[in-house]
Amino acid sequence: MPGAGLLRDGQKLLIPYTLVLVVCAALGAERLNRNAVLVAAALLPIALMPDLALGGAGRLRPVEYPRDWDVVAARIEAAPGPVVSLPFGAFRAYAWNRRHVAIDPAPRYLDAPVLVDDTLRVGDLVVAGENPRAAEIRRQLVAGQPLTGVRWVLVQHDAGGEAPAAALAGLQLVHSGPTLSLYENPGTVSAARTDWPLPLAGHLLALAVVLVAGWLRLGRGALLKSRSRP
């Protein structure tokens, strides 16, 4: 069904409800006793998710990433550039995570753009992804060509497969560990980091909104007090 992929991440559908809930909760808090609001705020998470306190009946347990991840992350941070994560797939089942299926952590663990397979698979139906760079990587892997169009190639040995030798041709091995190997393209140059202005602008805008809202709130309170005086 066209557009059905939008329903994969159901939490996105809660965004409008969250906005309404925040506004309604703030308006309701003004009309309730302060102590009652504090008690309700403390009990609400427990009432909504009673099994969270028990860690999902013991099924939720913390795991520690292998040291290879920190070594690779530091190496890439020192020379940032696009990364291809192999095997080329969106999901992993690591032995150190008790073979639980999880999304590839590389895009979140590494401080660099990571190319992963964004193909949507629903049973036997395969829908091509939308990232043209990921599509090019997929084409090169199928054709047995080297991945020389990126700065780094990350091979995850415990992710359920190995990288084809042809994909690593011409690349330099800079780290070899029990769980990860990192290859560098010697023909690329580190790009300057230019992604910080946009997040900074977003934080400054959010701060400005909070300051303006606080100023309006204080101004309104002062105006009401001045009007109430004889």
UniProtKB/TrEMBL annotation:
Organism superkingdom: Bacteria
Transmembrane segments: 12-29, 36-57, 200-219
UniProt keyword annotations, A-Z: Membrane, Transmembrane, Transmembrane helix
Name under which the protein is recorded: Uncharacterized protein
